[in-house]
Amino acid sequence: MNFKCNRQRRITSWNKKIGGYVVAELINGRELSKKIKQEIKEEIVKLREKTGKIPGLAVILVGDDPASQTYVRMKGKACADAGIYSVTYKMPIEITENEIINEIERINENENIDGILVQLPLPKHINESAILEKIKISKDIDGFHPHNVGKLSVGLDGFVPCTPLGVMEMLEEYKVEIKGKNAVVVGASNIVGKPMAALLLNENATVEICHIYTDDLKKHTLNADILVVGVGKPGLIKKDMVKKGAVVIDVGTSKVDGKIVGDVEFDEVEKIASKITPVPGGVGPMTIALLLKNTLKAFKRRLL
Fold this sequence. Notes:
Layout: E1 2-4, E2 8-10, E3 17-18, E4 21-22, E5 25-26, H1 29-51, E6 56-62, H2 66-82, E7 85-91, H3 97-108, E8 115-118, H4 128-132, H5 146-153, H6 162-173, E9 182-186, H7 193-202, E10 206-210, H8 217-221, E11 226-229, E12 247-250, E13 254-256, E14 259-261, H9 266-269, E15 275-276, H10 283-303
Parallel strand pairs: 5-15, 6-7, 6-8, 9-10, 9-11, 11-12, 12-15
Antiparallel strand pairs: 1-2, 3-4, 13-14
Helix pairs in contact: 1-10, 2-10, 6-7, 6-10
């Protein structure tokens, strides 16, 4: 298997050595996301032939943050490639909370829209929770509404945040056994950490959640058969913090000297892990792929 991640690199299996080191198998998020997107595209073609309709996604973008604008453009392109109708509602940074809510309520009633995504973060004067709770539950493809959060916590089918859902797809694709394993999640955000822990727990892993107040992080991470890290702190996880043979999933993204890097010291940790995700090219592409998959799921629930 070949993979390009801003440089050519050789991918080996866990039982092969290079230069005296065992090198982890690279979990290729770019390739897996392409596979998922192709499957979605093919299913949408069939559904369009059957129903005469296609899924629709609405994105609400508040302000002019460059990173948010880039993410929204990427999502729009991915939708177009998959055959999903998408529309972006661009709003000025000074917009009021009530004005955003009014727009969401209008979109809730739009029969051409199956999913609503509010690009985060929102400006500080906007109550994020109040906005997200106004999204119709059946259109909450980000899985942030308390109703869907509750479903996840008790193991019922609902919408799950795209990034941790993408991690689960990666673990399944690369045949990582979860049941009975020790899983440690570093980061306790509502977007990644908490839903990630719930998903792993629902698959019968023994789960620990670590966060900014965790004392002696290394003591916890060394217990992990599956280590998922998503805090946005470059180089947080070092080689001596990882159990030999662990599966390491790096969700963190930061920019250092103009380069995108993760939370894991990749070059060192790959020598001890059994499988590892790169940054970029790991979890990132999966997030958009699962956004499309959730949009398709909402569409199918509405029509079928």
